[in-house]
């Protein structure tokens, strides 16, 4: 694939990952059984939380020097339904070892959050014990369906992420079972909390019966009001990571 046309900040991040995996082996190996643990965890009776182990970001720089395992256990104690672990090193201060640490620390399903540009990244996610991987339509475009098949071959769930109507239509056509709507435009880093409600309604109106996740920009329980009766789950990183008391911040965010 040619990733050179991915624009803005996202394009710079993707270019780094393309270089990281330019010589990687694309072989996925034998099929692996899928348990759909990540999907099942987000289908609870109330709004589920994917709490993110996030040490830094392009928009905020250093956030908090979290120990991955300690942070994941705190999120679990606070009531999170799943954990997201960033593994991108340059902009998010993540690494694959953190994924292994998180998987080993909690009973919750874990999402490998990275900028997937190569099949080897999915194989790594499965090898390191992740239950799911992030697939971004803004990066993969029409190829997201092919990468979704790869994820399922490896027994992984996939959080297929979109930011606008065009990307949503591609995701709906890909056969995705879990759709994430990112309020942050990763080309500019601007956040608009109206994006998730709008696109979630569009997805439901198009007949999508899978799991819908609202992502980015949520800081308080009140912020979740517009998506509480629309989304199945929310993904929250920065506000929890910098809170100083991750378990308490998780409980407060989930308060009805």
Automatic annotation (TrEMBL):
Keyword line: Amino-acid biosynthesis, Aromatic amino acid biosynthesis, Decarboxylase, Lyase, Tryptophan biosynthesis
Reactions listed under catalytic activity: 1-(2-carboxyphenylamino)-1-deoxy-D-ribulose 5-phosphate + H(+) = (1S,2R)-1-C-(indol-3-yl)glycerol 3-phosphate + CO2 + H2O
Pfam family, one: IGPS
Lineage: Bacteria, Thermotogati, Deinococcota, Deinococci, Deinococcales
Organism of provenance: Deinococcus gobiensis (strain DSM 21396 / JCM 16679 / CGMCC 1.7299 / I-0)
Pathway given in the UniProt record: Amino-acid biosynthesis; L-tryptophan biosynthesis; L-tryptophan from chorismate: step 4/5
InterPro entries the UniProt entry points to: Aldolase_TIM, Indole-3-glycerol_P_synth, Indole-3-glycerol_P_synth_dom, Indole-3-GlycerolPSynthase_CS, RibuloseP-bd_barrel
EC number(s) per entry: 4.1.1.48
GO terms for MF: indole-3-glycerol-phosphate synthase activity; phosphoribosylanthranilate isomerase activity
GO BP field: L-tryptophan biosynthetic process
Domain Indole-3-glycerol phosphate synthase: 35-253
Name of the molecule in the record: indole-3-glycerol-phosphate synthase
Annotated Gene3D superfamilies: Aldolase class I
């Amino acid at each position: 694939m040619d990733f050179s046309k991915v624009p803005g900040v996202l394009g710079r991040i993707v270019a780094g990952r393309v270089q990281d995996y330019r010589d990687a082996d694309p072989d996925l190996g034998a099929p692996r059984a899928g348990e759909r643990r990540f999907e099942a965890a987000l289908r609870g009776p109330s709004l589920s939380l994917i709490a993110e182990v996030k040490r830094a970001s392009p928009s905020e720089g250093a956030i908090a020097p979290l120990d991955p395992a300690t942070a994941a256990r705190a999120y679990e104690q606070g009531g999170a339904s799943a954990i997201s672990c960033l593994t991108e090193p340059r902009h998010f201060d993540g690494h694959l070892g953190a994924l292994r640490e998180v998987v080993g620390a909690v009973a919750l399903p874990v999402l490998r959050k990275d900028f997937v540009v190569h099949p080897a990244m999915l194989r790594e996610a499965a090898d390191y014990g992740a239950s799911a991987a992030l697939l971004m339509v803004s990066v993969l475009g029409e190829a997201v369906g092919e990468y979704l098949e790869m994820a399922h071959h490896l027994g992984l769930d996939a959080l297929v992420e979109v930011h606008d109507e065009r990307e949503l239509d591609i995701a709906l056509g890909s056969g995705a079972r879990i759709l994430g709507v990112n309020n942050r435009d990763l080309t500019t880093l601007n956040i608009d909390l109206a994006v998730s409600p709008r696109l979630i309604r569009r997805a439901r109106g198009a007949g999508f019966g899978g799991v819908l996740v609202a992502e980015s920009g949520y800081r308080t329980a009140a912020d979740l009001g517009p998506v509480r009766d629309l989304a199945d789950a929310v993904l929250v990183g920065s506000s929890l990571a910098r809170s100083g008391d991750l378990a308490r911040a998780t409980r407060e965010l989930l308060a009805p």
